[in-house]
Design brief:
Blueprint lengths: L2 E5 L12 H15 L3 E4 L12 H25 L3 E5 L10 H8 L3 E4 L13 H13 L2 E4 L2 H10 L5 E4 L19 E4 L8 H11 L9 E4 L5 H8 L6 E5 L3 H9 L3 E3 L9 H8 L4 E2 L21 H14 L1 H18 L2 H14 L4
Parallel strand pairs: 1-2, 1-3, 3-4, 4-5, 5-6, 7-8, 7-10, 8-9, 10-11
Helix pairs in contact: 1-12, 2-3, 6-7, 6-10, 10-11
Organism: Sulfitobacter mediterraneus
Protein name: Glycosyl transferase family 1
InterPro entries: Glyco_trans_1, Glycosyltransferase_grp1
């Protein structure tokens, strides 16, 4: 049995606050366990500095020293054979894993690391250097999207192995399929910087739809909820905000919706797209880096074509049930082939083998 240490410097997988990062971390642990590995959460130390404060970074780096000592002792007792870190980047670098792996003499691997050499100067300089050093140390880096792969390939040490790990759902099989007769659905946390731009595009798009009985449900909550609700006021009871939903409730909403509408501004790729397509929902999204890699179908509206192109795509799908069902079938086939836990586990197995861990 493989004995593996797992670490997520931005948010541990057992954090009580839901997020995409937490879901991905939990899925990674599940995929490793699917291989028969014994996975230990090696540390809950959070290194994130979201504001770019050199004093905060210096303090966190100092705190990491004692955490390294603790983790080395734990690793010796547990007999870890490799250390895997999820999501090392300039705002939340892995300050622990490389040092522990070196002290224990075990392979160090990363999953979804981001290179950002432009951050080596400026308010995140210390953390950016730490993130780059950690990435340089990794024997294997798994990447989720081709967009991330570009900088990883450009800056990789000669001996480093880079492996594509398609984003995946933490499940072995598909959920029940939607009958595609319900309202449209949007799913996204309500945060000003990251998500509000997508909600603005949604509102602009809805204003262009023919007044022919459409409706939209929105699943999500957050500090920008009042702004989101204000954007939706012109549409009256055609738009309903459901608030934050747990996993079971969200699965039921997917099952009773007709399509997912989420433009995808600044999404790395978006777990919501995988969840919706697993339930057979056609997706209305803009053609953006990362996002396009998790969408079924050959083409999606270009960003420069704006809300009008999104409205045209929605109108076409809503008027043509046959197109909706064809898109649903394509979506579920894609998820089955590339984005479920068993497929991810086999990719992780290959990467561990590259690092000498069997």
């Amino acid at each position: 049995m493989m004995r593996l240490a797992f670490y997520a410097p931005m948010k541990p997988p057992d954090d009580p606050v839901p997020s995409g990062d937490r879901s991905i971390a939990r899925g990674l642990v599940a995929a490793l366990e699917h291989l028969g590995a014994e996975v230990t959460l090696a540390s809950r130390f959070r290194s994130r500095d979201g504001r770019g404060n050199p004093e905060v970074q210096a303090d966190l780096m100092a705190q990491a020293t004692s955490e390294i000592t603790r983790a080395v002792a734990q690793g010796k007792t547990a007999g870890w054979q490799a250390w895997l870190t999820y999501h090392n980047y300039y705002k939340a670098p892995d300050l622990i894993g490389p040092h522990v792996a070196t002290a224990l003499g075990i392979p160090y691997l990363q999953i979804e690391s981001t290179r950002a050499r432009k951050r080596l100067d400026g308010p995140w300089a210390a953390f950016a250097k730490a993130a780059e050093a950690a990435s340089d140390t990794a024997q294997v880096i798994f990447y989720f999207t081709k967009h991330d792969a570009e900088t990883l390939h450009c800056d990789a040490p000669q001996s480093q192995v880079l492996i594509h790990l398609p984003p995946f759902l933490n499940r072995n099989t598909l959920p029940a399929a939607s009958d595609l007769t319900g309202p449209m659905l949007s799913v996204g946390m309500m945060r000003s910087a990251a998500k509000l731009p997508s909600y603005r595009i949604i509102a602009e798009t809805l204003a262009m739809l023919p007044d022919t009985g459409w409706s939209l449900q929105i699943a999500g909550d957050g500090p920008a909820r009042a702004e989101v609700e204000a954007l939706m006021v012109p549409f009256g009871d055609k738009v309903r905000c459901l608030g934050a939903l747990d996993e079971a409730a969200l699965r039921e909403v997917y099952r009773t919706s007709s399509l997912l509408f989420w433009p995808g501004v600044d999404e790395a790729f978006g777990m919501v797209y995988l969840e919706a397509q697993a339930a057979g929902l056609p997706v209305i999204a803009q053609d953006r880096p990362g996002v396009r890699e998790v969408l079924a179908g050959a083409s999606h509206p270009a960003v420069q074509d704006g809300p009008a192109a999104l409205a045209a795509r929605i109108t076409d799908l809503m008027k043509n049930p046959a197109k909706r069902h064809k898109a649903a079938s394509e979506a579920r086939n894609m998820i089955t082939q590339h984005h479920l836990l068993p497929a991810a586990a086999q990719v992780l197995r290959r990467g561990l083998a590259e690092a000498g861990v069997q």
